[in-house]
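So, could you explain the following?
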Amino acid sequence: MTEKKTAGPVTFPIVGIGASAGGLAAFEAFFSGMPAERDPGMAFVLVQHLAPDHKSLLTDLIRRCTRMQVHEAEDGMQVKVNCTYIIPPNRDMTYANGRLQLLAPLAPRGQRLPIDFFFSSLARDQRAKAICIILSGSGSDGTQGLRAIKAEGGMAMAQHPESTEYDSMPRSALATGLVDYELPPAEMPAQLIAYAAHAFDPDIRIEKPGAPKAESTLKKIHDMLRSMSGHDFSEYKPNTIHRRIERRMSVHQIDTLDGYAAFLQKKPDEVEALFRDMLIGVTNFFRDPEAFQALAGEVIPKLFSGKSAGSTVRIWVPGCSTGEEAYSIAMLLREYLDDMHHSHKVQVFATDLDRQSIAIARSGEYPAGIAADLTPERLTRFFTQIAEKGSYRINKPIRDMLVFSEQDIIKDPPFSKMDLISCRNLLIYMGADLQKRLIPLFHYALQPGGFLFLGTSETTGEFNALFSVLDRKWKLYQRKHDLSNVRRSSTGVSAINDNYPETHSAKRSVPADNPVKPNLREVTEQALLRFTAPTGILVNPKGDILYQHGRAGMFLEPAPGEPGVSNILKMAREGLHRELTTALHQSVLSEKKVCIPNLRIRTNGHFTPFVLTIYPIPGQSDASTENRNQGAPPPSMYLIVIEESIPASGSGAIRPQQDIPAGMGEGIPSCIRQSAQSGTNADSPEPESTPLVEALRKELKAKEDYLQATQEELETTGEELKSSNEEMQSVNEELQSTNEELETSKEELQSINEELATVNSELQTKVTDLSSANNDMNNLLAGTGIATVFVGPGMHILRFTPTARSIINLIQSDIGRPVSHIVTKLVGYDRLALDIQSVLDTLVPVEINVRTEEERCYTMRIQPYRTVENVVAGAVVTFVDITEMKRTWESLQVSETRYRKLFEAVKEGILVVDADTGTISDVNPYLTILSGYARDYFMDRTFWTIEWLNGIAADSESFVMLCEKSYHRFENLAMKTEDGLPMTVEFVSNVHSVGAHRFMQCNIRRIATEKT
């Protein structure tokens, strides 16, 4: 039984290279920097922003710069080592199982991010073997894919911005802090090959930083990290720290931990790079889907249970990374609210140490790979599709539910009064001591009955007394109410008594003023008439003066500082402020009349007795306390009446002010002064029953009420400030959302501009090539001296060479004119336009010899002009100068005629033979007379086959020997005529060359004739 052979994993690194506008020059510089003497040992995949309707020339252009094979990618093409693959136009591309997959882009033009899309797939498939390079380009495409590759342990390069034509893409990548090498393109290949040789060579083993001798070195590294970033990683789990350090050691080809620590001391930038690597987070939407199902079923309904309509549910997601978990919870909440038709407000506070991750979370834009983590319903409902590769964006209603901020959970203050805290897969990176500090902190941040959601590998540890378990498998906990035994946590946050009653002002918000403003003067006058108060001031619950009746200068004075809203509490004179504050607060809470008698107010250096009375004024003029008890709205105005106290006769009368010195009255409670003036002895044997003790008790009670009122006012002010802050945050989020929409539009325009820039770059290269070819062609035509005229299909002159001006009267302005309008210098020929039209109609070339007025002769050829696609686009008229050739031919004709007559008239037989082949090419007439044989007997026969000449050369070898000498003579050679008559002849042969051919001329002269 044979085993099936399966394709093994790819053993060589795959390098993804992304570029946009200006990328062609960067690609050429990169491949030109490759070593010429050896192969790189990896494969390269080029992804560029290409116009979907324009054929890319990139493949042909890259072939000029590298010895490697260059292919335009095809669907399913296997990636081979030492080869380069280029994305075709109007396609998205992924890498999986050693092959390239091409997809039709789903995103509209201007919103595609092909580099992110390919890098993300490369990270999923190749993990640590994945390498990405970002070259020149506009926008930020490639940044998110770079994050994915770095999260899997891969390597990232970016072009130095100063060497780019467009630096947006490299700068965006560099801003992540995850780029390992920042180099010009020409220097990248050497560093890339060195990295691959060190990182993927099985013979190299990097020292593991776990031996006891390495602890001191690790402490130095932690100290450098703490000094640079302000964050302490020493309490994180050692394995997490070791993996991050090992990655950086591989980048710099360092084998020992001591060597890396020394490198950190010399290179402060490497400390920042190590810090960035420490913060690489791995997360996705609805991670552990069953855990989120448990959250939706067991916790989310309880978050809204017992809450009134319009109230707020507060959630905190510490360590949110790039926001997927926080958005997942927000989607669950939105689903529940829509299903239950609730109108509650939800605030999700998501925090993280990584500033760059927070920026990604705020943008809410994620690659297409999230589709695997989301149901189709959620993907359609909560996301807007932008591009297949990173092309889903959280809809604005969900983004508005979240507030992202940078926070170090270890040292920064936590949030409070949270209904739910979701901290999943953060504690697993931290040591036990750090976990013991964070669990009580979460307990403090939750309000009574709040919920805690941890990762599947995390627990509350030894703090089980603080939480009750809702779902042990999926780590759902609920905060317990009893905090009597909770000790202060190590973070310095004290446990707060849950049973401490909230103030009335915190439970009930102050109602807003009636939108329909009443006649304040009429209300005040009616109240004064009702209560017969001579001087009254109408205020709101905060003490702001709405209307004043009568003179109030004896107990009010303007407050220092810039004028603003007149507040009676700020304007109250000495002796009135404390009691007025307490009384107004009591009236607001109880909604009842409050009266304080025997109030001593300092005016003009002495104290005057007054009676303070505060009356609640209902919202409607006919409202009563009974009506309010039945559900009427609480009062929105209060009438403060201050009238001078009239002393009564008897022991209880108030003595004149001068009995107590003015300087002694300040700071002395009025009740004590009252008791002292009545002659009460403080040393009475029964102090608890004396009026002085009673007065002290009352005064103490008044102080307590005053302090309580002040505290509640501060709490109210704090709540108002908090509400204002939340409103400002909401406005800021709206502005941020608007800015994000504008940024999206800007990115779309940038993306289209990148495609146009790429096309322009390729066209510029093509134009350069065409310009060079045009120059070569012009020089060729000029060098040959051939006059040429190009005629369009409409019989208009397109262009001509300079030589044509000597034949046809042409100037530069004649371009575009019909041929029939042009006057030629040809003699006896006026059919140029007719012959050109004939060629265009029949496609049959015409060739005619013509002559100019200067007696120059030319061969004129008219041929169809055919394009590369074999389309006739006009005609080409060429004039080849044959003047010299014709003169030479005429001279040859004269010479030929002269020598032919001599050849034919001479009284010697002449035989012309090809010396190389032995073939007879010509005989003169006298030879036929001499020999008696006809001309045909000799012509086209070889010399040795003619019987009459056998005496000279009977075979080919004899003929060759005859031809070896340039001159040979036979005297008294006996021969016979055709009739058999004998004769004696003299035979002379001369061998001469004409060009590359040799000829032998044989002269035969008769000497005598034998008689029979």
User: Anything to note?
Assistant: DSSP finds 30 helices and 35 strands in the chain. Confidence is low (pLDDT under 50) at residues 1-8, 483-516, 620-631, 648-688.
